[in-house]
Amino acid sequence: MGFPLSYDIVAPQMRSLQKLEAALQRLDLRWEVIDTTARIVCPGEAAGFLHTLDQTRTAFATLAQEMVEHIATTHLSNRMVDLASRAQVAIDILVRNLFERTADVGFIATDGPLVAFVEAAAVQGDPDAATLLRQRLQEYRAKYTVYDDILLLDDCAHPLLGLQDRPVTEALVVQEPSWWRGAMDRPGYGEHYGASDWYPGEGDLLLYAHRVVSAQGRACGAVVLRFGLHSELESIFADLRDPEDRVALLLVDGSDRVIASSKPAEFSMGEVVVTGSLQSLDARPCTHRGHDYLAQARTTRGYQGYQGLPWRAVALVRLDAAFKGEQGMQESAGGGGAPATAEAARMEVDDPMLRAIVERARAIEEGLTRVIWNGKVAESAVSAGSSIHAVFDQIGRTGKDTIAVFDGAIQELRGLLLAGRRAEMKAHAGLAVRIMDRNLYERANDCRWWALSEELAHALGDIQARGAPGQSAAAAQRAAQILAHLNSLYTVYRRVALFDRQGLVVAVSCDANTLPADLQLDADLVRRTLALQGSQAYAVSPMQPQALADGLPAYVYCAALRAAPGGPVVGGIALAFNCATELKAMLRDALSQGQGMRGFFTDAQGRVLASADEDGMDAAQGGARPVLPFVADIARAAVPPAAAGRQPGQGARTSSAATASVLPATAQRVHWQGRDYLAGVAVSTGYREFKRDDGYREPVYSVLLMPVQPAVASGGALALPQSSVQGAGGNVRRYGVVACGALLLAIDSMHVQQAISAVRLVQVPGPAQLAGMLEIAHEGGTRMAPAYDACRIAGLSALADPRRAVAVVVKSQGRPVVLLVERLVGVVSQDSVHPVPGSVSAHAPWITGILSDRGSGQAIVYVVDPNGLDARWVPLPPEVLAAPSASSTSAELTTQR
Asked: What's the pTM?
């Protein structure tokens, strides 16, 4: 993904990025000065490394520019992805909600008392019937609080009854809307947004209509549900508000006209915000009222085939505020470098551009290391007064600063990429619990509304009538038919059941033959249901295996049935929510595609309630629930002490503000089942009054896991033996130290010609130690020299990729030979070499001594004599290879001294 002009967009807003660019420019200037100085003051001595230095400088300049651009691009990418995520969640959550409205309006249009009233109103009005029906509709609205009004109409679109007691006057006798006749002539819902004569002067409204059909099959009127669109959008916008409240969220119609805005002072209702170019992540900034904005617009992905109205959600942030608060570069004398966050230091971020940058930075570092190493090895052959010493000192200091700036910039980039992943995981985890909360809100509504069914209450009374078995059987059959109709409209339930005061199930919606004939519900759930006060109360079982759900874990929603409104409780209705299917679907809808994510719902102890996994890693029938142990730690750290002591399902009246503040979505690294993951975790905070003000609490956590790889630990600096010179006239030798794994080898500078890249290695047949042939500089020209794998010679594993090794050209018996090693370590000067222990000399005569001093913790370095290298090489003994820096060799050296 590339962003056009990303640097031009981001850099003016970010001082830290400007500082990084300035630091890189200063380093480039320093390298230019070093190059010029070497060519002028010591051209002869510098000839051996100027070509490598030129290549390194060119690579540095190119990579520096690309690194700055990629950091800018990543900053922009994170912001644009964040905006896109907010817009997508906003429109998808809204459309899911509106899908439920299409089901509601179809169901209430079949309500018996409502149908009877509309049918009778065509003949004559009945004030008492209107009062009773209005009370019934107010009961409906008290449960389905998303509606502002419910309106009944005759077949000419004239109002008959609404929630408010208003007389039907000539002012309310309106013209048929243009969409009215189509809604009356066919089954199904009608959906309309705009001004309505039924609500004069109230602006644009979102209405759902469904015809009311008489017992004779005639469309005798309609019911209209007025959805509280603006209160719903306020709730969605509040959920998606960023901590700094910089992001504006809009809903626009098909003409890009603003329907709702989280920042009406910046984007007012009715304004036009052109969104056609804002649906891709590389969208350029847009301008509104003279200000530049980064913006993303998204249409819905739909839900169960429902697409809703042609609306879009838009998320915008002003460009001059978009990057405030972003993690900046750490200011330092060297220009800056981002400190690695704990997560960035412990996790690899899978990003192709980052991998390429790291590889190229590594190549530059190796090039500089070769120049410095070659220079220090060659210093013994250069007169003390030569200017080359000063040049090498400058190369060393500038190389160190260059590597430090690159390391800092790479860590900054890692942190940015990780921040983007974290934001994505938090957004998707939050989406999962929002989907769940809104879905289960509907379940609490369904059970309470269905419990008001007079038909079910009468049927339950007849079933319980003594001495009339025929009447009881007919009533049970009638109740089962009603329940089956409900279940056919609301397929999220595995079964809907009717039970008496003893908890005995007397009718079910489907598959009664697979249930025990004397099935009784959980005694505690029945007790709580029978004790419910008023028509607003309901009870919910814990998530546990339920007979009504075929033994699978499920929530069962219950409400009390009364013989008459306000009368005694005669039993209850139980709705077994199909958790196995529905919760899995919610998780899958919340997962980001193509990233190998896993999704779970858990309780506060981390016990899995549902899983998005194909194999259904949830609580199996009769089995123990799998546990994500890290969830309990996150929950304990986030929940206030007062809330922590509350048991799941225990009544608690909490304000929505307090509940929502329990745990903002979080993302952190976790280790589970032997793997590392980035975990996005969010807790259910309820929706409207559900789980907030209705006395029901059941903390549920959404947990999304994205696999990550542990970061490859960088090798720490080795503590080499200190240079040891016993006086000016001593026999001081300079040794170049190289590494094969943890094994350190030293080569006397008199044998070393130079260290070069092995990228042009040509493989040829030969003994196991021979890796190939490599072209080297020789006597003013070039020649091919055999290249041997020094790791293989020492008895270690062969180099994984010999072309990525360092090639050290040495003289062996008068001819050039190449030793391939993993890396160059340093150069030390010594005036004495310790003898080789017997265990080493017996196995490897090509090891002629050991460099070490009496300092504790110093690495053991074995001196290699290239003249002893031949086809009879024998590996080092195992005890040396096992612990070259802390083996028994150290003790043996001590005794020899």
From this structure: 0.80
